[in-house]
Write a structure and sequence with these properties.
alpha/beta, 26% strand, globular, 5-stranded parallel sheet, 5 strands
Length: 129
Amino acid sequence: MILFCYFQIKPIERIAFSFTEKDALSEIDAAFNLVEADSKSEPFLVQEIAKMISESEQVICFFDVVESEGLGALSKAIEALRKSKANQLFFVNGKNQQLQKVLQMLKQPVHNFVSTAQLKAVLTESINS
C-alpha cells in the first residue's frame, strides 16, 4: 500500500480542509491511500494514521507548515514514521524548525515543495523506481 499523508502544522484559522494538490495525485499512475490531518486533529484520527503508516510499504508525506506552530497531535504520526521500515518520501511547503529537526533525524529524502509539476515528477520517479 502507498500511503499519502497530507499534514498541516498551522494555526487552526489557517488550516485548509482539502489538499489542493489532490487532483495531481490522480494523474499519477498509482493507487494512493490519501489521509489528511493537522496539528489540531483528534487523537483517534492520528492514532489510526499511525497504524496505517506502520502497515504501509511506502509512505509519502506532504507537510504544509508555518514556523510558529508546534507539531501538536501529529507527534504520534511522526513517531510512527520514525519506527516504520517503509520507503519514505517527504515534501515540505513552508518552514518549521521543529519539523526540520525531526525530518533530519529520519534520514529520508525531503523536497521543498515548488510546484505541482515538481510534485508529480518526483512522485512518478519514486513510484517507478
